[in-house]
UniProtKB/TrEMBL annotation:
Domain ABC transmembrane type-1: 63-244
Pfam families attached to this UniProt entry: BPD_transp_1
Main location: membrane
Membrane spanning stretches: 67-89, 101-121, 127-149, 170-198, 225-244
Top-rank lineage group of the source organism: Bacteria
Keyword line: Cell membrane, Membrane, Transmembrane, Transmembrane helix, Transport
Family per similarity comment: Belongs to the binding-protein-dependent transport system permease family.
Native organism taxonomy: Bacteria, Pseudomonadati, Pseudomonadota, Betaproteobacteria, Burkholderiales
Organism: Advenella mandrilli
Compartments where found: Cell membrane
Keyword GTP-binding recorded: no
Membrane topology type: Multi-pass membrane protein
Protein name per the record: ABC transporter permease
């Protein structure tokens, strides 16, 4: 029954997604015609500039720097949040101790974090990576703690009865239970990390996609600005559909096999 429903809803969902993309392009074209080329590049001009941009050293240099910052920042932030979340899920005292810091980091506007990072680290990669780690860790921490607290207490007692070690308990009890919240947190962190890195580069970096966007804005090159925006969206699409969604399916299969 589930397979039949997926076959019936899958093509329909993709069709409506395509219609949504066409509506966005139509709205973009109408807005470009209304505002004029000085304020907004048209979709046609943007896509014409896409291939020359992709083959230029200007794109390759800035994109490689941004990808490195995204990978390090998001990876370290998620790892720190996961480790602290697992520990806090086991220890109520540590959870209470970390709660004020979690609240401060999640409530603080990202622009403030960027300003403080620039003050402490100056311009460049250390500032961007520090800010990304600081913004990504709380989300992963919250999802990990929530997943840990929702683990069936009867299963926890069973691991005590069968004398599971810490590593075996983490591998066979907690990680399968954390599959859903962790995959959702990874998706949010990856997409949010791209936005954070680009914003930090716009405000205070000497290289990267955000730096290139700021340069294009300073000379009022709207075609290049919108080309970079499309490239950032393509990057997020690659991260989600090529990396994260296959990872989610593998983790879901692993969870089901582990339960079997």
């Amino acid at each position: 029954m589930k397979t039949v429903m997926q076959k019936q809803t899958g093509p329909t969902s993709r069709l409506w997604s395509c219609i949504g993309v066409l509506l966005i392009l139509a709205g973009w074209q109408i807005a470009a015609m209304y505002l004029g080329p000085m304020l907004m590049a048209s979709p046609l001009d943007t896509f014409k500039n896409l291939v020359p941009m992709l083959t230029s050293t200007h794109f390759l240099d800035n994109a490689s720097v941004s990808l490195w910052r995204i990978g390090v920042g998001v990876g370290c932030g998620c790892l720190i949040g996961f480790i602290l979340g697992v520990l806090a899920g086991h220890n109520a005292c540590l959870r209470g101790l970390l709660e004020p810091l979690r609240w401060v980091l999640m409530a603080m506007p990202p622009v403030v974090v960027v300003m403080l990072s620039m003050l402490w680290f100056g311009l460049g990669s250390p500032m961007v990576i520090f800010m990304t780690v600081l913004m990504m860790a709380p989300g992963m921490y919250v999802n990990t703690v929530k997943g840990m607290l929702q683990v069936d207490r009867n299963l926890v007692e069973m691991t005590h009865v069968y004398r599971f070690g810490r590593w075996r308990k983490l591998l066979h009890l907690y990680l399968p239970a954390l599959t859903a919240p962790l995959t959702a947190a990874l998706l949010i962190a990856a997409c949010g990390g791209v936005r954070m890195v680009v914003m930090a580069e716009v405000l205070g970096a000497e290289s990267g996609v955000g730096y290139a966007l700021a340069n294009a804005q300073s000379v009022f090159d709207n075609t290049e600005i919108f080309t970079w925006i499309i490239l950032v969206l393509l990057l997020v699409a690659v991260i989600e559909f090529v990396l994260l969604q296959p990872l989610q399916r593998r983790m879901r299969q692993w969870q089901e096999n582990d339960h079997v």
